[in-house]
Sequence to fold (191 residues):
Amino acid sequence: LLGMSPEELPHYREALRLKPNDDAVHFSVANVPGDLGNFDEAIEEYREAIRIDPALVNAYVNLGNALASRGLLDAAIEMYQQAIQIDPEHAGAYFHLGNVFHTKDWVPEAIACWEHTISVNPDHGRAHFNLGSSFYNQGDLEKATHHYREAVRVNPEYADAHHYLADVLSDQGLVEEAIAEYKKAIRADGH
Fold:
């Protein structure tokens, strides 16, 4: 049901009318307003899905995302932590929790979350990218290089990862490799 189009929303609203206690329908209905930027409606539907099924881990994660989008970072953290209590290996919960920690400038906590994300899902390119950026900002070029390389390994079309990898390589004096990565960044960005 994920990826539902706005045109399908009236059908799911009718399903809600017919099955008001169906957590999956509430969860699906919440995804559309969230995708369209109507976070208040999404928050309401995710909360209802959780009320119906308190073990619906993805509803906690998506509720956390909607709350974070509204700037309610502490509430988002609580939702991600509840998701992790339900599923301690939920890579998405750790990834998004790391993003919120980073927004709050809690860098060590963010790094720990992203490291856990890749321990669960080694092919999580965005977690590798975020780790690369964090280590780059800390001056750890070796770790930054490793994580940017992993990000582009996972997604060869990840333009930002190619660009930042090129920056790190350039900072290390690896000019030819840096130029190759800048070219890949440009191609991946469609220019």
In short: The chain has eleven helices and no strands. The mean pLDDT is 89. The radius of gyration is 19 Å. Residues 11 and 17 are 10 Å apart (CA to CA).
